[in-house]
Amino acid sequence: MPTAKPGLLNQLNHNYDGLGANPIRVFDAEANQVPDVVKLTLGEPDFNVPAHIKQAAIASINADESHYGPSNGWPKLRRAATGFLKDRYGLAYDPDHELVVTVGATEALHACLAAVLNAGDAVLMPSPTFSLYDQLVRINGATPVYLNTAATGFKLTPAQLAAAIADTPTAKAILLNFPANPTGVTYTRAEVQALAAVCAQTNLVVIADEIYSELTYGFTHTSFAEFLPAQTLVVNGVSKSHAMTGWRIGFVAGPAALMARVALAHAFAVTVASNPAMAGATEALSSEAGRADTIAMKREYLRRRDYVVTAMRALGFTMPTPTGAFYVFAKLPASCGQDDVAFCHALLQQNHLALIAGSGFGPGGEGYVRVSYAASLETLQEAMRRLGDYVHAQA
Ligand SMILES: Cc1ncc(COP(=O)(O)O)c(C=O)c1O
């Protein structure tokens, strides 16, 4: 095996200095070493991909769709994705110039940031937030600026946003995610409108990660792009709505002049997403059955959410009732101390239950744990039993 020439190593891309592996995946790998562990760590739906979606991918393979597709994605999928955004959220995008199909929402976010950022720019982000954002911003030469939302129920307020904009003259973009990972919180229509009104006074590009938009409980998601289409790049995909995380299909929509740049960043990095996955995503987004799949999964998530929230509150955890996604973000009971990292390690080692420490999601997450309830009810029941054993042992 070759060893890298030492002189090379200090001249590598410094944007990557100090960036390790995703802390969630590191802890998840640690949990895998624990016998009979129960893991509620990853944002990974436990459902199988519905059969009609698999059939669409198989048909694509059998039809020998084995050559490069158009870089922005097959027109059929672009139409399905713009149709989905129109049908669900009232957004109007031209599939030929205003939408790009990407390799998951992750590549969509990367393409947006690569298209927009210059070295020295700042990117605002409410926190706690999805930990990948920090890394994506840094590798694009910019600096994340966290807006701690713990004091306002994990929601960014218009006043806090306006103050942050005034304090951060280098801010080029804001990264919003709702429904939110890790908090499960989302914004009402009026709240989205109020934040959009603040952004409208600026030249900020709003990158709205709405990958959990189909998983809202009791109301329909409002897209940021509805109120601020000229400044918003809206990111979505089929990973969460159709349990297709491993298929790696996402998309970005926005004004044509911005999307031309996003399309370049996408094309230079990956050329195009894979054909069978695009065929499956087309079926997921354009068929009646695809709509029904999400509704059925959502019904099940709601049942699980209610179970976990009730069980954790009974153990002394406190939390806002999550209104979207599939996470509970809970404050530790006083009897367990407030060191969330120590709590998660002890819970893993002593009771073989893996939850994610809140501080890994940025300022405001300290003293919290994230529970992913994208797991079967039986798994959740066992998890709550183990959590109860641990908590009662601390009292
Ligand atoms: C907020 C958020 N954005 C993006 C992603 C990545 O989505 P994808 O698997 O489509 O790349 C995730 C995955 O957990 C997420 O939680």
UniProtKB/TrEMBL annotation:
Give the GO biological process terms.
Answer: amino acid metabolic process
* A family per Pfam: Aminotran_1_2
Enzyme Commission no: 2.6.1.-
The entry's keywords: Aminotransferase, Pyridoxal phosphate, Transferase
Cofactors per UniProt?
A: pyridoxal 5'-phosphate
Protein known as: Aminotransferase
Task: Identify its protein family.
Answer: Belongs to the class-I pyridoxal-phosphate-dependent aminotransferase family.
Q: What is the lineage of its organism?
A: Bacteria, Bacillati, Bacillota, Bacilli, Lactobacillales
Q: Name one GO molecular function term.
A: transaminase activity
Task: Give the Aminotransferase class I/classII large domain ranges.
Answer: 36-387
